[in-house]
Amino acid sequence: MILELSEDALEYGRQARQAFGAAGGDALVMRAQDAPGDREALVTPVLDGLGAWDLDPRTDADGLEAAAALCRSAGYWAVPYPLAERLAAP
Q: Per the domain annotation, does 1 fall within a domain?
C-alpha cells in the first residue's frame, strides 16, 4: 500500500484543512454533532468550495490522491460527514 501522496494532493489537503478551519473548525464540528439534520447544510458549502464533487477517485489516480487528502483533512477536524462514502459512490 502506498501511503505517500503527491505534492499536489498534499497541497489540496492543506487547503481543505484550512477551509474547514475557516468555516468554523471545532465550532463547525460541534454544531454538526449537535444537529445531525443540519450536517449537510454546514459541511456541503465547504466541500463545494473545494470542488470535492468534481474529484473522480474511482478512475483517476490524481483524483484518488486528492480524495484521500480531503478525507485526511476532514478527519483532522473530525468532521461528522460521510465524505469517503460520498466520494466513492458511482
A: no
pLDDT number for residue 90: 84
Asked whether residue 2 is assigned to any structural domain, the reply reads no
Could you tell me the CA-to-CA distances from 27 to 31, 80, 83 in Å, in that order? 6, 12, 19
Residue 62 is placed in which grid cell?
490524481
pLDDT at site 1: 66
Q: How many structural domains are present in the chain?
A: 1
Q: Give the CB-side neighbour count of residue 61, counting CA atoms within 13 A.
A: 4
Give ∠ CA 1-71-28 in degrees, rounded to 5.
160
Range of the domain at 47: 7-88
